[in-house]
Specification:
By secondary structure, the protein is of the alpha/beta class. The protein is built from twelve helices and 13 strands. It has a single domain (about 5-345), classed as Metal-dependent hydrolases (TIM Barrel), CATH 3.20.20.140. The chain is about 35% helix and about 15% strand. The strands form three sheets. It has an eight-stranded parallel sheet with strand order 2-3-4-5-6-7-8-9. The chain has a three-stranded antiparallel sheet with strand order 1-10-13, with helices on one face. Helix 3 (about 85-95) runs parallel beside helix 4. The two termini are about 20 Å apart. It binds N-carbamoyl-L-aspartate and zinc ion. N-carbamoyl-L-aspartate binds next to loops. N-carbamoyl-L-aspartate binds near residues 43 and 265.
């Protein structure tokens, strides 16, 4: 018998870009509708660097929530070479900050303040290992001679593995993994290691982005990879291994900045993420593994309780995906995988 209904503990999103101001006000309801909590990325301009920055940003997010919403933003700090270890310690101790984000300088959107010299952040990483505060890692090298499709795999060997060995006990989230190499590295890790996976990397590969015309709304970083990687990511996500959980990396950009001669990186998946994931897990014959991926393994890694309420997904006629969400910062095109999604949130 085929299953056409699925009830899950309410999911959380362990990697989300909400932006600020009018853009945030426009996109926030689309995460708050399905997700109870989200790890909020700090790559604003200027970035969220100190505990005070995070407290102020959190207040702005709370003020922008739709009426009646209990959506909880889990704040992060953007690691710079000038980050003060004691500020991190205090922001974590107060419960405000749940992770620190490492962007290699120049890796992606708004990452200019990121880390170039890892020796300069050693003190912060040691405090984080001591207090158990996770480091969320954008795992790509940025050296210009490294091909964009190889940047994640090279990062694991050249940066991530040495960093973990040099800082025993440091809890690390490999964010938005895109390769077989990353999935294998995460699966082989101990309980200090986890990896998040996005909707677009579970559904698409680089052919979807580049064959028959270039599709800017599939352009994100880390970039979609060769088709052989996608099944490895689906395998990891549907494996029931608690090391792998959802981080959508929903990253809104106004449509005209993506449909552009130099288009921005980021897929706005928040409105359709849960429907798309149900489709992926259904196709993999693994609907029974969806709740772990979206609702249980993330809280376990972060040491937070699971959500108490539930959401229900139903299968039926193909989901009608709107072209765009209107925001005060312009329309934002909604991720559409280009094939039918038969699931939706009831
Ligand atoms: C993100 C953004 O737009 O902020 N873009 C993306 O393609 N994922 C940055 C990031 O997470 O790399
Ligand atoms: Zn991101």
């Amino acid at each position: 018998m085929t299953q056409d209904r699925l009830t899950l503990k309410r999911p959380d999103d362990w990697h989300l870009h909400l932006r600020d101001g009018a853009m945030m006000e426009g996109v926030l309801p689309h995460s708050a509708e399905h997700f109870a909590r989200a790890i909020i990325m700090p790559n604003l301009v200027p970035p969220v660097v100190t505990g005070n920055d995070a407290a102020a940003y959190r207040d702005r997010i709370l003020a922008a929530r739709p009426e009646g919403s209990a959506f909880e933003p889990l704040m992060t700090l953007y690691l710079t070479e000038a980050t003060d270890p004691e500020d991190v310690r205090a922001a974590a101790a107060s419960g405000l900050v749940k992770a620190v984000k490492l962007y290699p300088a120049g890796a992606t959107t708004n990452s200019a303040s990121g880390v170039r010299d890892f020796d300069k952040v050693r003190g912060v990483l040691e405090v984080m290992a001591e207090i158990g505060l996770p480091l969320c890692v954008h795992g790509e090298v940025t050296r210009p001679e490294i091909d964009i499709f190889d940047r994640e795999a090279v990062f694991i060997d050249e940066v991530l593995d040495p960093l973990r060995r040099a800082t025993p006990g440091l809890r690390v989230v490999m964010e938005h993994i895109t390769t077989a190499e990353a999935a294998a590295y995460a699966a082989a890790g101990d309980e200090t290691l986890a990896a998040t996976i996005t909707v677009q990397h579970l559904m698409l590969d680089r052919n979807d982005m580049l064959v028959g015309g270039i599709r800017p709304h599939f352009y994100c970083l880390p970039i979609l990879k060769r088709g052989s990687h996608r099944p490895k990511l689906v395998e990891a996500a549907t494996s029931g291994n608690p090391r792998f959980f959802l981080g959508t990396d929903s990253a809104p950009h106004a449509t005209d900045t993506k449909e552009n001669a130099c288009g921005c990186a980021g897929c706005f998946t928040a409105p359709v993420a849960m429907a798309c994931l149900a489709q992926v897990f259904d196709e993999a014959g693994a609907l029974d593994k969806l709740e772990g991926f979206t609702s249980r393994f993330g809280p376990a890694f972060y040491g937070l309780p699971e959500n108490e309420d539930e959401i229900t997904l139903v299968k039926g006629a193909a989901l009608e995906i709107p072209d765009a969400v209107e925001t005060g910062a312009g329309p934002v095109t909604v991720f559409n995988p280009g094939r039918p999604v038969q699931w939706r949130v009831a």
